[in-house]
């Protein structure tokens, strides 16, 4: 068994929330957008490996995401993990209520509903909402519940592209939800294009300026 020397994601969020309460300033996300993208990619990549083997984690939450000393994230707590059947259906209902997909929640009432690996996608979206804004005691859980189950919007300080990405992951209808593999290919997670080398940018700018001067001179009669 591999050792995770660092704190859990939940502890990381706790520390950030405490620091935010101690300081003063404008409202902002708990984790930076860059960090949230790192968390999303790491979780989705790990889950994609499980899903290829027909395994569904079923209990994605900050406490079950551990961090190695190098910063790499690791999934933990496989007590709820289940194998889906040949049709992709997961028979058992399990997990943590706050991060549980709708099709899992209704399964506890005895209602027959189809559950697939997309229930993990939903939990990742709920976790990312926590990383953005909804972490911290009873108040955080209440706000997360309001967003996931009552249609409340994410706070305005959450970037629109991130809001849209999370909204897709937590779609009420599992058919409208992406698989983890599809989520990994989402444009929001695409790496930013590398910056142009400074010397190239400077050279191109000089050429544009020379062309503009030449065009302006050509418009003046008798100027060549």
UniProtKB/TrEMBL annotation:
<protein>
    <submittedName>
        <fullName>Serine/threonine-protein kinase pakH</fullName>
    </submittedName>
</protein>
<dbReference type="InterPro" id="IPR052751">
    <property type="entry name" value="Plant_MAPKKK"/>
</dbReference>
<dbReference type="Pfam" id="PF00069">
    <property type="entry name" value="Pkinase"/>
</dbReference>
<dbReference type="GO" id="GO:0007165">
    <property type="term" value="P:signal transduction"/>
</dbReference>
<dbReference type="GO" id="GO:0005524">
    <property type="term" value="F:ATP binding"/>
</dbReference>
<keyword id="KW-0418">Kinase</keyword>
<dbReference type="InterPro" id="IPR011009">
    <property type="entry name" value="Kinase-like_dom_sf"/>
</dbReference>
<feature type="domain" description="Protein kinase">
    <location>
        <begin position="1"/>
        <end position="189"/>
    </location>
</feature>
<keyword id="KW-0808">Transferase</keyword>
<dbReference type="InterPro" id="IPR000719">
    <property type="entry name" value="Prot_kinase_dom"/>
</dbReference>
<dbReference type="GO" id="GO:0004672">
    <property type="term" value="F:protein kinase activity"/>
</dbReference>
